[in-house]
TrEMBL record:
GO-annotated molecular function: DNA binding; DNA-directed DNA polymerase activity
Family: Belongs to the DNA polymerase HolA subunit family.
One family name in Pfam for this protein: DNA_pol3_delt_C
Gene3D superfamilies: 1.10.8.60, 1.20.272.10, P-loop containing nucleotide triphosphate hydrolases
DNA polymerase III delta N-terminal domain sequence ranges: 22-138
Protein name (Swiss-Prot/TrEMBL): DNA polymerase III subunit delta
């Protein structure tokens, strides 16, 4: 069955009785919230043990078979979380199908993967999940529904926001759900459920905005080299994971590619820009005017290099590869692969 993300909490009693659930979308913070809601409901039953796997198209599926056949002395059932780091290719979809097709009543598979296009949703694996399990496609709320989403998320975290604070967070972090999640989590940690003033929100938002990975997006789109360097320097010094920064690069490159594809099929630039928030259109317009389809294809190959470097499969410092790719996105001359950048 398909379940809209707004009804996940209401449908939890049904979901946890199914053999598997697939969550798909392109907003990691929203997907993580949905995943945690289902995971917590299952683990609160008290009889599950849990294992988590990051899955790419080179994943060794024998690990899943071994895990599914082994239970500890202290649990009778197992929750297996499969977090796909990239869209599955045909072979990986087939392996996932075989895995789910052999599941048994002691297992629950909780799967997250990047947003599936129309063709991918026709794959027999996805159709089997929809038929026998649960398919949840996570869509970000538009700007008219964002304040309500913030209020609901704050309520879940027991963060007491004043109405003007909700409006401020919505305007200050438009479309940046990871930043909103980070802010609300910090408010929960610092103040619990005590009333939180507008001034406290402004101060904490200002502090957070310095080194949030998603600040990189606007710097990339506007080709602000000095800001790109400063943000990456801060992210590295703060200990942020390269994989998160690479996700930001990958997301922006894919979005520009999607807009260029629409324009190649006859859409105007303004029509292509309908994919982004109104306040962001000027930045994306600037990037579209600067980046050619050839450059976007090259950038796509570069984020693959970052992924390999992050996994230790390429003899390259991941942060050097990130800096080189970010500079290329901004339209600056590329550094050689072996170049060292001292951050």
């Amino acid at each position: 069955m398909r379940i809209a993300q707004d009804f996940v909490t209401k449908e939890l009693p049904k979901i946890i009785r199914l053999p598997y659930c697939l969550i798909t979308g392109d907003e990691p913070a929203l997907m993580l919230n949905t995943e945690q809601t289902i995971k917590n409901a299952i683990m609160n039953l008290g009889r599950y043990e849990r294992e988590v796997f990051d899955v790419d198209n080179k994943f060794d599926w024998s690990h899943i078979l071994t895990t599914g056949q082994s239970l500890s002395l202290f649990s009778t059932e197992k929750l297996i979380q499969l977090r796909f780091t990239q869209k599955p290719d045909a072979k990986t979809f087939k392996q996932l199908y075989e895995c789910l097709d052999q599941t048994h009543s002691d297992l629950f598979y909780l799967i997250t993967m990047p947003k599936l296009d129309r063709n991918a949703q026709k794959n027999k694996t996805v159709q089997m999940v929809e038929r026998n399990g649960c398919l949840i496609t996570v869509f970000p709320p538009d700007h008219t529904k964002l304040p309500q989403w913030i209020k609901e998320r704050a309520r879940q975290l027991q963060v007491n926001l004043l109405p003007e604070s909700v409006a401020f967070i919505s305007a200050h972090n438009e479309g940046n759900f990871l930043a909103i999640e980070q802010l609300l989590t910090q408010l929960q940690f610092l103040y619990g459920n005590a009333p939180i003033s507008h001034e406290m929100i402004i101060e904490l938002s200002s502090e957070n905005s310095n080194f949030v990975a998603f600040d990189l997006s606007s710097a990339l789109l506007t080709a602000d080299i000095a800001r790109i360097y400063r943000i990456l320097q801060g992210l590295r010094s703060e200990g942020d994971a390269p994989i998160l920064v690479n996700w930001v690069l990958h997301k922006e490159i894919n979005l520009i590619h999607r807009m260029q594809s629409k324009m190649a099929q006859g859409a105007t630039m303004e029509m292509a820009l309908n994919d982004v928030w109104g306040s962001q259109k000027a930045m994306y317009r600037q990037a579209l005017n600067r980046l050619s389809p050839q450059r976007i294809r090259h950038l796509t190959r570069m984020v693959v290099q970052i992924d390999l470097a992050t996994k230790g499969q390429l003899n390259e410092n991941p942060w050097n590869a990130i800096m080189r790719t970010a500079f290329a996105f901004a339209g600056k001359r590329l550094l050689p692969l072996s170049a060292e950048i001292n951050l």
